[in-house]
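Inverse folding, one chain.
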């Protein structure tokens, strides 16, 4: 339930806090006074997009606060829990700030909140019915959705739509696979050929093969260099070598061990060097005296290197990058080979179609079973609205072919209507007048709003221009209907009809004042002020005692 709506620098309103009563709240005022501002502000608090023109001229930003009591609304509690938000008190405070640069921010109980989150929460708090509902009533989809809402088959309808969409998805996939079957086979053959070419390189470490080939191709020169290095380190000729000179240096240092610590340290380092050179000498000896490599091994390496160079030129990639590319080829090949063919998908398509038909048949059965009761409810509500001979019926026409079936099911659904005795029922768009459509739209919205069993969880109902196309006694019946609805649910409605306004539990007047800057203000009317407003609505600009007496009679008639 909405407790209050507070506006700061919003459009024509400088600052105002409005307390909203339980039951039926009505908004009235002259044309252009700003009656729709409250609905705009409420819409923003439940996630609608903002417009910088909503900020009052000269102000940097506008702020809107909406406070709700959610004491008995378990759906809101569940929403908070699902989103990991804490609801410490059974109240929800939504703040929306609009900047004059077009940006906006939102907070929920003091914490930042996204517009998507506000929208999902908003449907649990407020249900706004547009003044254009009668135009929507002429669209077949609106009638189907309303029937599902009333028959409580929305979940089954969504299940049917989902199964149909899955079937269509499989069909599109099969068509795509069939259309590219030839290209797919060509691609498989190309990848297999490329992988066969490069297979010898994938079986080895190419960088190691390159290094080994480089060494074996120059082995004789390398062995000669090893012999020369060995000769310099240690030889039996008269030529000086490293080991001989190192031995002399060690002897020199050893002779001075007792004289200076420097010679002792130098001797230790020279002995370590002598040990390392001995190891290097053994290493070079083994290398210089090794047998020449097997010619077949060198031939194998030549073959691998030549293959690498050839494929590198062919694919314009270095051999190392080509190896990585080959791994991607392998993945592509596996995906293509494992991709189901259109024939393989046929069984899945058939299964998906059967599941859709099962859901669609169950949906049709549920709709047809609920339709007579729903039509009876509709007629019961329409007859007091100056439509005593109203009759309604849902017509279900099976689509001519299976190819015409769609996400809504196997049947076209129309709401047939007749307002006159002896006249056949026909589709609404063919026979209903504007006034009849407006009354039908209002009743359908009221019935849908009251169809839930859980009164405590019902959102606040908002009707924009509730009296479009009605007047006189019909308006009074509409007012009585809304007042009756207000006994169990909070409502807010804009009206131009005094008969509707007189039935409200709380009457809110929006009036415009022209000072230095035009400003609208909100006034809760009671007593003589309410009488004067009802008199204005009934009799025009000039208020007389006659019009006041008529206004008082409207209030007296309220039950």
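Residues assigned per position:
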């Amino acid at each position: 339930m909405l407790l209050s709506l507070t506006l700061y620098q919003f459009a024509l309103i400088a600052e105002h806090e409005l307390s909203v009563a339980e039951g039926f709240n009505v908004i009235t005022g002259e044309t252009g006074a700003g009656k729709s501002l409250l609905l705009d502000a409420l819409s923003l608090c439940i996630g609608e997009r903002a417009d910088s023109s909503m900020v009052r001229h000269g102000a940097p930003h506008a702020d809107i606060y909406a406070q709700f009591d959610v004491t008995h609304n378990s759906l809101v509690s569940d929403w908070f829990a699902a989103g990991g938000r804490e609801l410490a008190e059974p109240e929800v405070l939504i703040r929306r700030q609009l900047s004059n640069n077009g940006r906006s921010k939102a907070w929920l109980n003091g914490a930042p909140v996204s517009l998507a989150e506000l929208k999902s929460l908003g449907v649990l708090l407020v249900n706004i019915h547009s003044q254009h509902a009668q135009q929507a009533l002429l669209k077949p989809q609106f009638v189907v959705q309303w029937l599902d809402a009333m028959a409580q088959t929305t979940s089954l309808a969504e299940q049917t739509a989902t199964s149909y969409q899955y079937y269509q998805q499989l069909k599109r996939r099969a068509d795509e696979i069939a259309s590219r079957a030839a290209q797919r086979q060509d691609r498989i053959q190309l990848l297999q050929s490329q992988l066969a070419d490069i297979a010898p390189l994938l079986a080895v470490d190419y960088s190691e093969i390159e290094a080994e080939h480089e060494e074996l191709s120059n082995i004789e020169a390398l062995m000669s260099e090893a012999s020369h290095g060995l000769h310099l380190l240690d030889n039996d000729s008269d030529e000086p070598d490293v080991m001989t000179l190192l031995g002399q240096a060690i002897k020199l240092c050893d002779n001075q061990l007792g004289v200076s610590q420097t010679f002792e340290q130098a001797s230790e380092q020279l002995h370590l060097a002598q040990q390392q050179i001995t190891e290097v000498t053994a290493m070079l000896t083994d290398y210089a005296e090794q047998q020449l490599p097997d010619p077949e091994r060198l031939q194998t390496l030549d073959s691998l290197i030549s293959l690498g160079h050839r494929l590198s030129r062919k694919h314009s990639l270095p051999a190392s990058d080509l190896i990585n590319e080959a791994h991607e080829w392998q993945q592509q090949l596996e995906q293509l080979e494992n991709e189901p063919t259109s024939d393989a998908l046929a069984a899945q398509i058939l299964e998906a179609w059967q599941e859709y038909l099962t859901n669609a048949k169950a949906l049709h059965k549920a709709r047809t079973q609920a339709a007579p009761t729903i039509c009876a409810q509709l007629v019961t509500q329409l007859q007091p609205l100056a439509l005593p001979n109203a009759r309604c019926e849902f017509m279900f026409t099976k689509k001519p072919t299976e190819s015409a079936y769609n996400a809504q099911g196997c049947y076209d659904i129309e709401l047939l209507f007749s307002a006159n005795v002896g006249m056949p029922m026909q589709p609404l768009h063919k026979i209903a007048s504007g006034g009849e459509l407006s009354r039908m739209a209002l009743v359908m919205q009221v019935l849908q709003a009251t169809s839930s069993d859980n009164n405590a969880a019902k959102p606040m109902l908002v009707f924009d221009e509730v009296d479009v196309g009605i007047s006189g006694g019909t308006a009074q019946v509409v007012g009585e209907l809304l007042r009756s609805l207000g006994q169990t649910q909070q409502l807010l409605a804009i009206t131009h009809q005094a008969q509707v306004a007189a039935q409200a539990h709380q009457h809110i007047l929006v009036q415009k004042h022209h000072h230095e800057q035009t400003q609208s203000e909100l006034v809760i009317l009671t007593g003589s002020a309410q009488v004067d407003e009802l008199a204005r609505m009934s009799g025009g600009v000039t208020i007389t005692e006659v019009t006041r007496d008529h206004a008082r009679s409207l209030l007296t008639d309220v039950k």
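The mean pLDDT is 84. Residues 342-382 form the longest helix (41 residues).
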